[in-house]
Design a protein that fits this description.
The chain is 23% helix and 38% strand. It is an alpha+beta fold and 614 residues long. The protein folds into four domains: 125 residues, Immunoglobulin-like, CATH 2.60.40; 142 residues; 137 residues, Immunoglobulin-like (Sandwich), CATH 2.60.40; 116 residues, Four Helix Bundle (Hemerythrin (Met), subunit A) (Up-down Bundle), CATH 1.20.120. Strands 21, 23, 24, 25, 26, 28 and 29 form a seven-stranded mixed sheet that branches. The longest helix is centred in the C-terminal third of the chain and has 29 residues.
C-alpha cells in the first residue's frame, strides 16, 4: 500500500513538472479565400486541457455543423525528463453565402484556471462555384436558393396579465412560430426586466413542448423557448424589452413550400443529418415589446405587520417541546405555504419573553417553479434558550398579505404556546444544543473543548531524518522510479493504439445505444428513438473504421466499407438504413411501425457487417 502511494506521488510530481513548463497557445485557423457556396472548416486548437470553450458570434456564414470537439495526447520520457502534450480542437463546418471580406472574432477557452483568447480570422469570399482543394463540394448548387420570410418564422412575447398589482405574479411566455424546420436556436439577448424580480420557469431548454396554432389562416408549429414568472417591485408602467434569438432554419431548395401536414414538423427543433436538398439559413429574430401597467397596493388598509406578501397563503407554527429546563434548547418553527411571491417574504415579527435568548432564524425553502408559476413553502426555525425557570407564553404569530382573489389585505394568526421552564441542575450556564443537533455553544464558562481520554507522548530527540525508516525510504526511491517507468511504458503502449480499442468496442457500444433506442421506442418517444438510433449507426462507423465524426458522411462511410472488402449489396443496404434513419421523421404514416422497422434494420445491418469483417 505504501509503495503504491509513493509511486502515485512520484507520478503526480513528474506530471505537474511537465505541465508547468508548457506554453499554452490558442489558435484559430481557416481558409483565407473561399467561394460563394463553398463549405470549409474553422478550427480552434489549443495545446492544453481545455474547458469552458466560448465561441464568438459567427455572422455572414451559414453554420452547418459544430463545434465538434476532439482531443489527442502524447507523453515522452527522455533521460528521465517527462514531456507531455495535450491538444484540443473545436471544429465548425461553415458555408460562404455572400461575397465580401468578413472577420470572425476571437474565441475564448480556459486552461488551468486561466482564460485564453484566440486570434481573429479574416476570410475573403469571392464569386464563383468552383471549390478549392480540401473543401466539401456543395450539392445541388444549380438549384434556386431558398428564402425565409417573416411569415415563415417569428417569435412572440405574451403575458397572462398586463394590469397586475405590485408584487403579483405574472407569467411572460416567449414562443417561436415556424412553418419550416429549425435546426438550432440560441438566445443572444435576454430582455431587460428593470423593476421586476424574475424566476425562469423552463428548466430544460433542450426539450421543448411543441404544439400547433393557426394565425391568419396559416398553421404553425409552436414551441415555448422561454417562460418567466415576474413580480413587479414598483407600481407604474414598466417595460419588458424584446427577446433576441439566433435561429438556423433548414429550407428545401427545390420547393418553396412543403405540405404542412407532413409529420416532418413534429420534431422541428432537432439538428438532423439532411441531404443536399436542404440549405441552412441563419436568421436573427426579435420578439415584441411588452408594456405592463402595475397597480399600487392600497395604502389606507395596509396592516402594520405587512412584509410584502402578495398571493394566496396559509401559515402554521409549532414548537418541539413545551416543558424543558433552563439552558436547554427549544425550537419554534413557522411555516408559510401558498402561491405567489413567497421567495420575497421576510421573517415574521415574533414577540418572545425577555428571559428567552433567541438566535436568528434558519430559513428553509421548498419552492417549486413550474410552467404555472411559483408555489411551495418557506420555513423559519428559531433556536430559543430559556435562561431562568418559570412559566412563559409565546404570543400568537400574525402574518398579513394581500389576497388577490378578494383584492384586499388579510391577516392570518397562529396559536400561542405556553412554555414551562424548570430549573436545571448545576450552575447556570452549560451547553445549548440546537433542534437539528448540528450547532452548539458553550455559555457561562471560559473553558472550551477540554480534551478527555488518554494522551500519547512522543519522546524528545526522535527525528525522522537519520532514522532506519528514513534510510529504507531513501534507498527504495530508485527502485520505485524504475518500477514507475516500466508501468508507465506499458500504459503508453496500451493507450497508443486508440483506434484498435475503439474498433474492438464499436459493436458493443452500438448495441448499448440500440438497447436505449428500444426503450424509447416502447415509451413512444419518437424523437429520442431516432436520435439514439442515428448515434448508434454513425458511432459504429466512426469507431469501427477510425473516422472522425467531423468528417463522417455517407460517402466516407461507403468508402470505408469498400476498403474493408464488404460486399456491394451490404454497403448499399447499410447506406439505405442510414438514410432511412435520418429521414424517418419526415415520412408520413404510422410512426410506431416506422420505429419498429428501423430498429430491426439497424440491428441486422450491424450484425451482418460484423460477420463480413471477420
Amino acid at each position: 500500500m505504501k509503495t503504491g502511494k509513493i509511486t502515485g506521488l512520484i507520478y503526480m510530481l513528474l506530471m505537474s513538472t511537465a505541465l508547468a513548463g508548457q506554453n499554452i497557445e490558442f489558435r484559430a485557423s481557416a481558409k483565407e479565400v473561399v467561394a460563394v457556396g463553398e463549405q470549409f472548416r474553422l478550427i480552434y486548437s489549443v495545446n492544453g486541457q481545455a474547458t469552458g470553450f466560448r465561441a464568438p458570434a459567427i455572422k455572414n456564414f451559414s453554420l452547418l455543423s459544430g463545434p465538434n470537439q476532439s482531443q489527442s495526447s502524447s507523453m515522452q520520457i527522455i533521460n528521465g525528463q517527462v514531456t507531455q502534450s495535450v491538444d484540443y480542437s473545436f471544429t465548425y463546418i461553415l458555408e460562404a453565402s455572400q461575397e465580401g471580406n468578413f472577420t470572425i472574432p476571437p474565441a475564448t477557452v480556459t486552461v488551468g484556471g486561466k482564460n485564453y483568447q484566440s486570434n481573429s480570422v479574416t476570410i475573403k469570399v469571392v464569386k464563383g462555384s468552383n471549390q478549392g482543394p480540401g473543401s466539401t463540394p456543395r450539392q445541388n448548387s444549380t438549384q434556386p436558393q431558398a428564402e425565409l420570410t417573416s411569415k415563415d418564422l417569428f417569435v412572440r412575447a405574451s403575458v397572462n396579465k398586463s394590469n397586475p398589482f405590485q408584487g403579483e405574479q405574472i407569467i411572460v411566455t416567449y414562443k417561436i412560430y415556424t412553418r419550416v424546420p429549425v435546426a438550432e436556436y440560441s438566445i443572444t439577448r435576454s430582455p431587460s426586466t428593470a423593476g421586476f424580480w424574475l424566476q425562469d420557469l423552463i428548466k430544460d431548454n433542450k426539450k421543448l413542448e411543441q404544439y400547433r396554432e393557426t394565425i391568419d389562416g396559416q398553421e404553425y408549429v409552436v414551441a415555448e423557448v422561454k417562460k418567466d414568472a415576474m413580480f413587479a417591485q414598483k407600481s407604474g408602467t414598466l417595460t419588458i424589452e424584446p427577446l433576441e434569438l439566433d435561429v438556423v432554419a433548414q429550407i428545401q431548395r427545390k420547393a418553396t413550400r412543403r405540405n404542412f401536414n407532413d409529420p416532418f414538423f413534429d420534431s422541428f427543433f432537432n439538428d438532423s443529418f439532411f441531404g443536399g436538398g436542404y440549405q441552412n439559413i441563419r436568421k436573427t429574430i426579435k420578439s415584441n415589446e411588452l408594456k405592463i401597467n402595475v397597480k399600487p397596493l392600497p395604502e389606507q388598509s395596509r396592516p402594520k405587520d405587512f412584509t410584502g406578501g402578495v398571493g394566496d397563503f396559509s401559515i402554521t407554527a409549532s414548537v418541539d417541546k413545551e416543558t424543558l429546563k433552563t439552558n436547554e434548547a427549544l425550537t419554534l418553527k413557522f411555516t408559510l405555504s401558498g402561491k405567489g411571491n413567497i421567495k420575497l417574504i421576510e421573517k415574521p415579527a415574533i414577540s418572545f419573553p425577555a428571559d428567552f435568548e433567541v438566535y436568528d432564524p434558519r430559513t428553509t425553502d421548498n419552492i417549486t417553479s413550474s410552467v404555472k408559476g411559483i408555489s411551495g413553502t418557506r420555513s423559519f426555525e428559531y433556536l430559543i434558550i430559556p435562561r431562568n425557570a418559570g412559566k412563559y407564553n409565546i404570543k400568537p404569530i400574525t402574518f398579513s398579505y394581500f389576497d388577490l382573489n378578494s383584492q384586499s389585505f388579510k391577516t392570518l394568526t397562529t396559536q400561542g404556546f405556553d412554555i414551562t421552564v424548570e430549573k436545571g441542575s448545576g450552575q447556570q450556564g452549560g451547553t445549548a444544543i440546537s433542534g437539528d443537533k448540528e450547532d452548539f455553544r458553550y455559555i457561562g464558562t471560559d473553558i472550551r473543548f477540554i480534551k478527555t481520554g488518554q494522551t500519547q507522548f512522543i519522546k524528545s530527540g526522535n527525528y525522522l531524518f537519520g532514522s532506519p525508516f528514513f534510510l529504507i525510504w531513501l534507498l527504495s526511491m530508485p527502485v520505485l522510479f524504475l518500477l514507475f517507468l516500466v508501468i508507465w511504458r506499458k500504459e503508453l503502449k496500451k493507450r497508443s493504439n486508440v483506434a484498435f480499442m475503439k474498433n474492438k468496442k464499436a459493436t458493443g457500444v452500438a448495441r448499448k445505444r440500440l438497447k436505449a433506442a428500444e426503450k424509447f421506442m416502447k415509451a413512444q418517444n419518437h424523437e429520442a428513438f431516432w436520435q439514439e438510433t442515428s448515434n448508434a449507426l454513425w458511432g459504429y462507423m466512426s469507431d469501427k473504421f477510425n473516422i472522425p465524426r467531423a468528417t463522417l458522411s455517407f460517402s466516407s462511410a461507403e468508402q470505408a466499407l469498400k476498403d474493408k472488402g464488404v460486399k456491394e449489396e451490404l454497403i448499399k443496404r447499410f447506406s439505405e438504413v442510414l438514410n432511412n434513419c435520418e429521414f424517418a421523421r419526415f415520412a408520413p404514416g404510422n410512426k410506431d411501425v416506422a420505429m419498429d422497422t428501423l430498429y430491426k434494420q439497424a440491428m441486422e445491418v450491424i450484425m451482418l457487417t460484423e460477420e463480413e469483417l471477420k
